[in-house]
Amino acid sequence: MRLKKSLGQHFLRDRKVIERIANAVDITPEDFVVEIGPGGGALTEEILKRSPKKLFLVEIDPYWADYLKNKFGEKVEVFNEDATKFNFSLLGKNLKFFGNLPYNVSTRILRNLLNHRNALSEGVFMVQKEVADRLTSKGGKEYGYLPALLQNFFSFEKLFNVHPKAFFPPPKVNSTVFKVKRLPFNIEEEEILEFESFLKRAFSKRRKKLKGNLKGLNLGDYGEKRAEELSPKELLNLFYSLKERGEL
């Protein structure tokens, strides 16, 4: 099996785990499905057993992209693209997503999905356990600007952990499978970038209170708190409050 360390490739081979992932989202003959980083196609096979209307595969490695085209033929449409930059909106709206995301770029892929959030209705992804812990955190040391950003647009639910022995080659860390659903909240792209910049400032020095990281702003009682003490919704409301007053 050909693998590239630079792409963080660890292929899932445990059939029971593969089946659990495929079963985590209900697939019907009317569904359009996207799989990110299919590699050798183990999960792809399981998805196809559920007969989706269309299955799109986004694979960055040209070797595996060609392999998938040859293996599955017209059953799939393969895009030899980088999922951290790929325009998922081109595939449609309200699609169902799957992916064993490469550890070294998993958060960048999820951040890109925010840019194309209308493409995703729900999905199941596997990432490094530490990343899943951060994405689902509501506060404390694991909570940072990215979960505070993403949780305003998506819900995250941990499903189960996966041991390194389920992969080839085995990674040095445990993995976690989680489910994501798009929330109804929506704002313009420019405002997302403004909010993201605000969050990066708020979390820039974790030991400092907000009044130290957001100097010169009228934060009221929030000034005495650290960013990790505020929920994603509270941070969003603070952002809008400051923006309405013309302080941002």
Quickly give the structural class: alpha/beta
CATH architecture verdict of the largest domain: 3-Layer(aba) Sandwich
Question: Any low-confidence stretches, pLDDT <50, length ≥5?
Answer: none
Question: Would you list the SSEs in sequence order as H and E?
Answer: EHEHEHEEHEHHEEEHHH
How would you characterize the overall build of this protein?
By secondary structure, the chain is of the alpha/beta class. The protein folds into two domains: 5-182, Vaccinia Virus protein VP39 (Rossmann fold, 3-Layer(aba) Sandwich), CATH 3.40.50.150; 189-244, Helicase, Ruva Protein, domain 3. 33% of the residues lie in helices and 20% in strands. The chain contains nine helices and nine strands. The protein has a seven-stranded mixed sheet. It has a two-stranded antiparallel sheet with strand order 1-8. Helix 1 crosses helix 2 (42-48). The longest helix is centred in the C-terminal third of the chain and has 14 residues, at 189-202. The protein is elongated.
A few lines on this structure:
This protein folds into 2 domains: 5-182, 3-Layer(aba) Sandwich (Rossmann fold), CATH 3.40.50; 189-244, Helicase, Ruva Protein, domain 3 (Orthogonal Bundle), CATH 1.10.8. The chain is built from 9 helices and 9 strands. It has helices at 15-23, 42-48, 62-72, 106-115, 129-136, 145-150, 189-202, 210-213, 232-244, and strands spanning 11-12, 32-36, 54-58, 77-79, 95-100, 120-128, 154-162, 167-168, 175-182.
